[in-house]
Amino acid sequence: MRAPSDMPRPRPRRKRRLSRRGRVVLIVLAVFLLVLILSLRAIAQFYTDYLWFESLDLSGVWSGVLGSKLSLAVIFTVVFFIALWLNLYVADRVAPRFRTPGPEDELLERYHEVVAPRQGLIRGAVALIFALIAGVGVSSQWNDWVLFRNRIDFGIEDPQFGLDVGFYVFQLPFYTFVVNWAFASLIIIIIVTSIAHYLNGGIRMQVSGERVTSQVKVHLSVLLAVLALVKAADYWLQRYELTVSQRGTVDGALYTDVNAQLPAINLLLLISLFAAGLFIINIWRKGWVFPVLAVGLWALVALVVGTGYPAFVQRFQVEPDESAKEDPYIARNIEATRAAMGIDLSDEQVVDFDYETSLPDDAITENEATIRNIRLLDPAVVNDTYQRLEGEKGWFIFRDLDVDRYQIDGDETQVVLSARELNEGGIPQQSWEGQHLAFTHGYGLALSPANAVTANGRPDFRVGGLPVESTVTDIEVDQPQLYVGEDLEGYSIVNTSRAEEDGTGEVPPYEGDGGVPIGGFLKKAAFALRFGEIDPLISGFLDDDSRIIFNRDVRERVETVAPFFQYDSDPYPVVTDDGRMVYILDGYATTDRYPYAQQADTGSLPSGSALDGIRFNYMRNSVKAVIDAYDGSVTLYLTDKLYDGEEDPIARAYAQAFPELFVDTDEIPEDLKAHFRYPEDMFRVQTNMYNRYHMTDAAQFYGNDDLWDIAQDPGTAITGDQGGEGDSSITGEKKMDPYYLLMRLPEAEQEEFLLLRSFVPVQGDGSPRNQLVSFMVGKSDPQNFGELQVYEMTVPGTDGERNSNVDGPAIVQSNILSTTEIAEQITLLDQQGSSVLWGNMLIIPVSESLLYVRPLYVQAKQDAAVPELRKVVVALGQSIVMADTLEEAILEVFPEAQITTQEEEAAGDTEGEGEGTEGEGEGTEGEGEPETTATVGSLLADAVAAFTAADEALADGDLGTYQEQVELAAQLVTQAIELLATQEEPSGDSGGGGPGDTTTTTEATGEA
User: Fold this and answer.
1) How far is CA 56 from the centre of its chain?
2) Whole-structure pTM value
3) Pick from 635, 633, 643, 629: nearest CA to 668
4) Which site in 147, 243, 472, 514 is 20 to 30 Å from 159, CA atoms measured?
């Protein structure tokens, strides 16, 4: 029997090792999972973007844009892959079986030992990598691709080649891209193919004799011939690019382009074709003489003829006689620019304004409606007033004030209004719950007539308050909650178990279709990833009915829906007939490809304008986006036909591509059309261009013989460094912004809502003069929407002789400040703890003369003070007066005029509780009490408002705000007492506002 030690030992089991293929599979899976984890947020962004478009019923737009991007990426990737793979395949097939050994063969042999078993796989991998690099980025050309597929003719031919403008706008950009892409791709393919030939032995650099096999020579010669043909196609397209050349004094194909550059390009095109032929002939010849000759000839002609010859012609033929040589081409530029920028005005649209320095009183009476609607409230000055008096809560803000018109008491009236939007920085509960579930929306708006103020010089609010109230029959806000707005970031979630708050008590549940339903784990997780917060996934306040609202900024919302338009800097709120609040945002179709048109002058555009900083030489206000402030729905109305009845081909091309996105002009609701405005940013660009392009004679244009500029802005600030007479910040650099007016133009039958901007002539040294030479208006009323009208200052009794003696805004402001009585009053108003601000300088055409009107505001120097209208200046020629009201100033200049301004109607109005004005029961003294100055009254009214705010904060449990408001109220009362003690007694004039008074006095009862 064997001893246990002699028994055979069991063989240890070997651990099974993964095969090489198994290890590769595991590595691939690990890499895939890692990439997936790193891409989760991008995937969530992609998924939630789709949900957002779907919530707007615009999933077709999302899929259409995505489809265009994918199709381009796939097509160009596949084309490049096939082209490179075939060339690498050919390189492998024609590889020599035997070559004379060379020094580099040892290294190449080792390469072949490794690569040979996987040659097909490596060939495909190399082709795929380069194809992805070359093809994926092409998706960025989706916009050009959409326009290319949906081309619409302009019906206008360019003067050089006789092609429709649509070719240059829709087809040439994509053709040019394709040719440039093909040229670059061929260079890459030639380089990679040459490397493949070298690795396969078809090219040897260190051997004597034949270094390139005949098969490789044939292959590379064919590729070079194709490259030359592609370059010939590029030269063919470059001919058309000359129509937007910027070589000369104006844009477009000028003398040198037509007579030197164009022939040079044609010659280079022939050289390219000739070079292609030499490359093909080289297949049957030894050596590389023909290819070298082709490339050398190509380079020589490109340098001498393509660059040197045009430079020679420009310097020695054009510049010595430029005006004569360029005359016909400048005429082309003038015609194209005026058409492309919408300033090709007919003779009926350019009217002589026989300026008179005087005006009969009955002319004022006949234009009472114009005088009545002169805007006294400057939105830039009274923005803080709106915030102080109507802000109501710290989490609300008036971001900017807009000007529009509404029916008030049966009359169309110019108004200043602003939406009371959510101020995320002012939310008292800066928690996730407070920011996203509780304080989710803005509320209502504040609206006041632009031509009226209360007794203490503040806006006469006709719509406002919490909850919103309206004293105007035609303005009823039935849906005041604003879930989208201007510059509103982040997101909110509605229909949760957490009650929303807006300061009005119980907020009704959200009933709109806006927002994305967020019920279900997948959607909650996706939004948690998108916003980088886990709260949407784990919050117990959310349920199946909850909806998330994001992309809340109206501009961002529209740009996401329709990114192919440029948008105005100023969306404005409108109350519709059914009581809903919407925002209207003007959209512009632009291109920089309009033949011969000049690039736009975008100077003076606001920083928020999408037109600022981009190149374009054609623009149309082809769409107006309407965004519902409650549910966030976006509707794009085509408005191109509102201007001249003609369709804009660019906008119509997009309408063909995305038909569900647009509503045609004929279907615009009348209540919206009544609030369409001539767009400000487009008007700025048009007036900038009209400075020079009002000249239609090429010789006059070349010499700048009648160059204009925008009138200088007289500024708003007052300083006391001119002997007590004050000085305003008048500069030649700041230009007057366009402004809206409701007025009757000369020879018009009724008042119109229009946009106005004025011009001054330019001196020989390029500096602007101060005399008014013209003004342009853009009309906004439905019956003549989009019509431009220009009035040129002329001498009465002549046949259009230019009047060079019409005072411009800068001269008028200087005359105002040099009037002793006015300067003295300004000096007094600018003392005793107050500062003076000028409002807009308004030019009001009346009959055949011009009224200049400028309001003057006084603001006490403390944190809670707001600007209050104290005086109004009216100037007509050398007659300049300043009075307490517009009516008083008008009647002082025109004593026999029969007018009544809206100021008188507002003077006795009181304002709602909590608005900080002298309303009944707030800051008023008993009937029969003595007068108090408006400045003291405003301080006391502000104190009352502060006490009211303190009470509200205490009721909300906000002790910090309560203490701040109480301290502020006490400070205001103290300042009022001190100011009352230091003020002089009034002069005793019954009007209470004669020269020397520092403030306008009002009865304590608030009666006029």
Assistant:
1) 23
2) 0.85
3) 635
4) 147
